[in-house]
Amino acid sequence: MMSVLARLALGAIIGLFAGAPGAWATGEIACRGIEDEEVRVSLGFGTLPVLSVISARIETPDGAYQLRGGEDATEIRFGDGAFLQDGLIARFTDDIINEVIAELRIVNMEDGRDLASVGLLRLPNEGAVYALICEGP
Fold this sequence. Notes:
Shape: globular
Low-confidence stretches: 4-25
Structural class: mainly beta
CATH architecture: Beta Barrel
Mean pLDDT: 81
Number of strands: 9
Number of helices: 1
Number of domains: 1
Strand order of the largest sheet: 1-2-3-4-5-6-7-8-9
CATH topology: Lipocalin
Radius of gyration: 19 Å
Distance between the termini: 49 Å
CATH class: Mainly Beta
Order of helices and strands: HEEEEEEEEE
Helix content: 10-25%
């Protein structure tokens, strides 16, 4: 027979798991270059109160970058970032966290039922800045 203390602990654990927000729930933002169709950015993130990037891919005319790398992409890591009142900012580093490879800034503007998202992608090593139009989440 289970003691009262064990029942209370089991109830608390079940309550924690049943009421906890799912960290695996995600949103995704997809951006494309305004002046260059080869530029694409996709960013997947968890629904934590802080920016938790779980997937990212950046494509430019000079190459591709991606979390966890890939055959056709250079591996990057999520360095830091934050949700802001009007959008988000995210910085990505090389795989040894030595230098910033890319900085992404997305701004959302809302007017009634109309919503627009634009962004800037800066690649310091390439000396490039790209204007983006974005959709999601």
